[in-house]
Amino acid sequence: MSLELYSILSVLYKSERKLPKMMNILESNRSLLAKLTSPEPPDRLVPVYFRVGFFGKLWEEELRGKRFIIKKGTEYNLSVMIKKMEEQFSKKYGKNSIVVLTQNKKIEEYVLEDDKLYIQIAGVVPYIKAANAHLRLTMFDQNFNIDEFLFETAFSEEGKPVVDDLGSLMKKKTIYKTKNPFPYVENRIEVCQTTEIFLSPIENAIEIITLQTSKIQSQLESPVRINPLQQALQGSVVPMVNPG
């Protein structure tokens, strides 16, 4: 919105021959564009997101059986989010009535106790389709107008969540789409669509290598910062990937 406003004002000041004001507007426009295209992290810390579902017959209709993406500040992690949600709803329904579920799997309503209220919580990250990655290169682009969020689960072909043999390690990517994009007037937006993508062991290995390569490439194309570069190199120079 600021870019559009600067553009309109520059045309207006040009038509009115208010050149000093036009110069100031163009300088502000240049400064804003420099920040938007900078590979450096923004001064403003980016938020964190959680997928929260409400299950059980005792929830009010506006929550019962629904899932939401909730935006929080960077001081939040999964344990903090769980504690805050427990405190919030325990005040209204009683501590013994609240059950928090941290496994991100489908909830079967028939196994739930009628006198309990279940809250399923999982951390998610903004999801950007590969086809749109070239349009979202900066931190600003990657955290603005976001309506899809990702949760990943590693598992084996035998169904076990953790395996010693990385050659059989597969991945399930669950993508949640919200009714409206973030940032929004509310910090809680309902999930309207869920998509699951399954990666084979070789596809999982290729994705890991591609991601690490992209991280290193972005660091080499920008002014070198030691800590981010070291983080990008970890697991890349001596990568732990699937055999073969």
TrEMBL record:
PROSITE patterns: DOCKER. It comes from Arcella intermedia. One of its GO terms (biological process) is small GTPase-mediated signal transduction. Transmembrane segments: none annotated. Gene3D superfamilies: 1.20.58.740. This is DOCKER domain-containing protein. Residues 1-244 form the DOCKER domain. Belongs to the DOCK family. It comes from the Eukaryota. The lineage of its organism: Eukaryota, Amoebozoa, Tubulinea, Elardia, Arcellinida.
